[in-house]
Amino acid sequence: MAPRKVALVLAGCGVFDGSELHEASAVMVHLSRSGAEVKIFAPNMEQMHVVNHLLGNPTEEKRNVLVESARIARGNIQDLADLKVSEFDAVIFPGGFGVAKNLCSWAVDGKDCTVNNIVKATLQAFHSAKKPIGLCCISPVLAAKVFPGCEVTVGHDKNVDGRFPDAETATAIQELGCKHICKNVGESHVDSTNKIVTTCAFMCKAPLHEIFDGIGTMVGEVLKLA
Predict the structure, then answer these.
(1) How far is it, in rounded angstroms, from Cα 76 to Cα 128?
(2) What are the helix and strand counts (H, E) for the chain?
(3) Labelling 4: which of 62, 110, 183, 219 has CA 20 to 30 A away?
(4) Nearest residue to 145 via CA among 183, 108, 104
(5) CA–CA separation, 106 vs 60, rounded Å?
(6) How far apart are CA 208 and CA 103, in angstroms?
(7) What are 147's strand-pairing partners?
């Protein structure tokens, strides 16, 4: 069987204003182990803001999402506007605040957010072509905004044992008319109707290897659907 071709969409570099590095790396490791061919993309746009990751506060600096994402891609990256869905079998979006700040405005507007036009068009194109979409951490909110009625997980809808501090995200997803499925960090949820696969990753306070393994289940299910 020919290797599956997967597009990976990044949102910058660093958890507080871009893609979560460990999640992006985990997706790439699992895809590599599965023999998939991966091409990396990011929108060519200015970040909402730049956060000093040591101090946790925004700075006056300006950075570009594509240029910053190139750090994770080791320079081998393309503008999301140039992605051709016909050349791929699936698309995956890792998490990180960049998804909620750059790919959409969830970090500021919550469920009333807007999704970047190119990101929205990319998601709709894969969905229309009946090709699977993988999302982890906060990125399932993209599906919740673009595909009303879909099923996703961002972990649990209650802060169980303090491990799910962002549980209100699940409530917001349900308020958008989508179905939130509670899953633990090592699990993913498959919405087989929409071919959307989601896992909570760092939405759960869990050891890194558990997050890595949970992302592995998401990648595995995406590849099965592809």
Answers:
(1) 27
(2) 8, 11
(3) 183
(4) 104
(5) 21
(6) 25
(7) none
3 state SS of 44: coil
Residue 115 DSSP one-character state: B
Domain boundaries, the chain: 5-225
Is the four-CA dihedral 69, 151, 197, 125 of positive or negative sign? Answer: negative
User: Catalytic positions, please?
Assistant: 137
State the pairing for strand pair 151-152/196-199.
unpaired
Q: Which among 148, 88, 80 is positioned nearest to 117, based on CA atoms?
A: 80
Task: Please tell me the distance from the alpha carbon of residue 112 to that of residue 49, in angstroms, as a whole number.
Answer: 20
Nearest-angstrom CA–CA distance, 94 and 146: 17
Q: Map residue 201 onto helix, strand or coil.
A: helix
Per cent of the chain over pLDDT 70 is 100
Residue pair 178/146 in contact (Cβ under 8 Å)? The answer is no
pLDDT-derived band of residue 176, with 50, 70 and 90 as boundaries? very high
Q: What is the per-residue pLDDT for 1?
A: 78
Question: Measured between alpha carbons, how far is 60 from 155 in angstroms, rounded to an integer?
Answer: 34
**Average pLDDT of the segment spanning 13-28:** 98
Report the CATH fold assignment for 5-225: Rossmann fold (3.40.50)
- Rounded CA separation 16/222 (Å): 26
pLDDT-derived band of residue 2, with 50, 70 and 90 as boundaries? Answer: confident
